Amino acid sequence: MAFINYSSREIQLKIVYYGAALCGKTTNLVTLHKQITHAQKGELVSLATDADRTLFFDFLSLNTRTLPGFTTRFQLYTVPGQAIYNTTRQLVLKGVDGIVFVVDSHWEKMADNVESFANLQENLIENHLSLVQIPYVLQYNKRDIPNAAPVNYLEYTFNNRANRALAFEGVAATGLGVLETLNAAARLLLAKYSKTPNANVTGLAQANPTVAVPPPVDDPRVKAEAV
Amino acid sequence: MLTAEDQMAIELHLADFLKKSEAQWSALVDKGGNLFAQNGDTGTLDLSILSALAAGSFAATHELAKRLGESEFSALYHEGHGQHILMSALHHECLLVTIFGEKTNIGLVRFYAQQVTGSLNDLLQVAREKEAQASPLLLEGDFLNDTAAIT
Q1: N or C: which end of chain B has fewer CB within 10 A?
Q2: Position A50 in a domain
Q3: Rounded distance, CA A85 to CA A188, Å?
Q4: Residue B147 pLDDT
Q5: pLDDT at A61 over 70
Q6: Cβ separation A95–B34 shorter than 8 A
Q7: Which of A61, A69, A87 has the CB atom closest to B48's CB atom?
Q8: In this predicted complex, what is the ipTM?
Q9: Do B143 and A7 touch (CB under 8 A)?
Q10: Does residue A200 sit within a domain?
């Protein structure tokens, strides 16, 4: 939950990068740490195994002046993607304000992506939250791989709801779409503090003009079901 | 939500605690990793990182406690060669994090930490009641379509 300190005129907001194992959550934070030059940023902390797999979380703090009269401190976390670390994912979601769900564009990872999205919803419930309350954006990562699933398929699978989330194509390793994704999530959170009511701020917003279409059901590689 | 008045009251209690216990630094942190208030000296340490790691460490310990049939471990102590950390559970999803060195000892720090947690719990209760009655923070501007961005 956002923390407002009227004494230091600071708002602290927690954004969690969620997604399946090896989908690029840590890479997003590593790239952000390199790309961000104007916002005041802290050290990137990674609690990882010797094999560089996230064990607990990665953490990056950013101070910005995006709200009048207040400093906004965005605290970016990742969760460990591996299935065995579910309790840890629940812990990292404590006090979350916004979510970036990173989708791995590999066809072979579709079932893992779907499972992770379902797991996110279950873990939010464990924290007495839901995607209706928590603003989230989608990042379709690894768009540079040769066998990337088509965007309209990813939209149908992960964004086929009455209120569609903002979705961005990305290549976290090169930086494509990384700042755009973070800024979209940040704006959704900041818009909650606007005096002007905005119908798109309750968590989801229509931004991507792509129309969701049915998946190519005849493709044998498609095993995941829409969530 | 903390008003300037709440923050000042909390910081006064932390300062008094540090004076009595001879600890180096103390902070009120929530279990989501937000730093609410702090007093003392940590040199060049990044306090955001410190808060996030302390909250994570305590959360992991909480899970261990649950698996042992305990509702919570009320305190967690990490002993270093020269510096040590004590984390004490407070009400309202908060923690008291204290760093101390060789000037004092765990017994003394723990004794005064237990004393100050009662006062801090009362202050947190007052802040929580104020928050429930306060109007939400609303500012001029359309931040959704704003061109201001993190760069």
Answers
A1: C
A2: yes
A3: 28
A4: 63
A5: yes
A6: yes
A7: A61
A8: 0.86
A9: no
A10: no
A85 at the B interface (CB within 8 A)?
no
Range of the domain at A68: 11-193
B30 touches chain A (CB under 8 A): yes
- Is there a domain that residue A221 lies in? no
pLDDT tens digits, A88-145: 999 999 999 999 999 999 999 999 999 999 999 999 999 999 999 999 999 999 999 9
Domain count, chain B: 1
Range of the domain at B17: 4-128
Q: Which of B63, B143, B151 to probe the A interface (max A CBs under 10 A)? A: B143
pLDDT at A78: 97
Rounded to the nearest 10 degrees, the angle between the axes of helix B106-133 and helix B4-21 is 170
Domain membership flag for residue B149: no
pLDDT of the residue at B142: 74
Closest CA to B19 of B148, B108, B127, B150: B108
Q: Within an 8 Å CB–CB cutoff, is residue A55 touching chain B?
A: no
Cα–Cα distance, B37 to B8 (Å, whole number): 9
Under the banding of pLDDT at 50, 70 and 90, the label for residue A205 is: very low
Token pair for residue A13? 């907001």
User: For B2, which DSSP code?
Assistant: B
The reply to whether B15 falls in a domain is yes
Q: Is B4 on the interface with A (CB under 8 A)?
A: yes
Give the Cβ contact number of residue B78 at 10 Å. 12
> Measured between CB atoms, does B132 come within 8 Å of chain A?
no
Each residue's pLDDT tens digit, B23-45 = 999 999 998 899 999 999 988 89
Question: Domain tally for chain A?
Answer: 1
What CATH number is attached to the domain comprising B55? 3.30.450.30
